Amino acid sequence: MRSAVGFLCLLSALVSTGYSLSCIECSEYNSTSCSGDSDLCPAEFCASTFIRESSPGGSIMQIKRFCAAKSQCGETGSATYGYVRRHMITSCCDSDNCAPEVPEFPEATEEPNGNSCPNCFPPTSEECDPVERAQCAASEDKCFVHFFKQDDLEFRIGGCASDSMCQPDRFPEYSYEEVSTTCARVSQ
Ligand SMILES: *[C@@H]1O[C@H](CO)[C@@H](O)[C@H](O)[C@H]1NC(C)=O
């Protein structure tokens, strides 16, 4: 009885907020699709965040599917570190378990914007070298450091980022036991 009441409360909460969408939750590296469980969302949209990592050796895509608020839809971002440019685009759709199409990505190389940041790439256990600079492009006006720890080994990557890249889930392939992403405004 108690659980039936609980269920009815949940149902009426969902109805009263108008959200009763189901979305797939999953992530995959080196792929533009993934499959996983369907979850009932307290949200209006199903989203896919696509992250493309471009380097002279080619590019690798990764995807994360989740329940999203409207503010997350259409979010873009980029980061530059070492010989890598990273682009992120989140696209949305609004029917049960829908999968947004893979969006068009900008060119891997874009005009430098004049900002630069201490470069940390390949991953290093040292502090980022302030002398060796990553040259920022597009709307990158932050210097990021993404820190990750595996067993007793600590690593960081760092360089230029747009504000939207300043969170650990923008670098999911560098996520181990402990992870953090910090950003500071570029100094001119
Ligand atoms: C990505 O996937 C392709 C095709 O399945 C494979 O050939 C390639 O080695 C993969 N790259 C990485 C870095 O996993």
TrEMBL record:
Residues 20-99, 115-183 form the UPAR/Ly6 domain. It comes from Xenopus tropicalis (Western clawed frog). One of its GO terms (molecular function) is phospholipase A2 inhibitor activity. Residues 1-20 form the signal peptide. InterPro entries: CNF-like_PLA2_Inhibitor, LY6_UPA_recep-like, Snake_toxin-like_sf. Its main location: secreted. It is found in: Secreted. GO terms for cellular component: extracellular region. The lineage of its organism: Eukaryota, Metazoa, Chordata, Craniata, Vertebrata. This is Phospholipase A2 inhibitor subunit gamma B. It holds the Pfam family UPAR_LY6. Keywords: Phospholipase A2 inhibitor, Secreted, Signal.
